[in-house]
Design a protein that fits this description.
Arc Repressor Mutant, subunit A; alpha+beta; globular; five-stranded antiparallel sheet
Length: 254
């Protein structure tokens, strides 16, 4: 009998292999597919959004699903393969919460780059305070969604801009952006403050961060998921050079 890797005290989670067999059976029925529910279950607009990613060889990324759910404000449960176990994440966009029956630090935060989407369905659980008390889970299993979204963007598998913010554009941060719950470095905070005052392109942002294009992409995706990014297709003259001069920073050589 195989030894379980589930930490002591954690709930039993279904094996991803067993869940995949279940999905394969569903795929044999008309109107069903393995990644998302039928049109009668998810809203038509959300379903159409998700189907953009469904047939790629790499599959659907968790961060894409979360971004779509936030845009359409629909509560869903995303069944994720977390290194062999199925971890359901129920997202509540309006309440800015998510539910996870297992410890997020163990099953999500430490496995962000390995998470794979298995299936997406409308949420059965309700958020705290809902009138349907029988469908509200223990309070300890609900968490603010902002840190999860930030971690997914900064450390997950996606290294390209989300489609909604990609292309020729410049970027600013929204005035009301709340960063209190997010783990930011001093440089990231300084760059975000600069973005409140001056729009920058992706290339300029990479220069400001000094860590290359991928770091800039991840930061923009993270800000977008916090509903804190303003995208403009008109490219103004950048003040990136003067910002560097004011801070006394130098671009990395080579």
């Amino acid at each position: 009998m195989d030894e379980t890797t589930i930490p002591f005290g954690e709930p039993e989670l279904m094996r991803a292999s067993a869940f995949q067999r279940y999905l394969d059976e569903l795929a044999g029925h008309p109107g069903m597919n393995s990644a998302s529910s039928g049109p009668a279950s998810l809203s038509p607009s959300l379903l159409a959004d998700l189907q953009r990613f469904e047939h790629r060889p790499s599959g659907t990324e968790v961060v894409e699903v979360l971004a779509a759910c936030l845009r359409h404000a629909q509560s869903v449960v995303v069944h994720c393969d977390a290194e062999g176990y199925v971890v359901p994440i129920t997202v509540f966009p309006r309440e800015r919460l998510y539910h996870c029956p297992a410890e997020p630090e163990s099953y999500l935060m430490q496995r962000l780059a390995q998470l794979k989407v298995l299936r997406i369905e409308p949420a059965v659980l309700r958020p705290p305070g809902d009138a349907e008390t029988a469908l509200v889970a223990p309070a300890a299993h609900y968490h603010p969604i902002a840190p999860l979204l930030w971690a997914m963007a900064m450390y997950g598998s996606r290294t390209e801009l989300l489609p909604e913010i990609a292309g020729t554009a410049c970027y600013r941060t929204a005035p009301g952006l709340d960063l209190q719950m997010l783990p930011l470095s001093k440089l990231q905070r300084a760059v975000i403050r600069h973005l409140r005052m001056q729009p920058v392109t992706l290339r300029e942002l990479a220069d400001l961060l000094g860590e290359g294009r991928e770091a800039a992409v991840r930061l923009l995706n993270a800000l977008y998921l916090q509903s804190g990014l303003i995208v403009s297709r008109a490219l103004p003259t950048s003040s990136a050079e003067s910002w560097f001069a004011n801070l006394g920073l130098r671009r990395r050589q080579g």
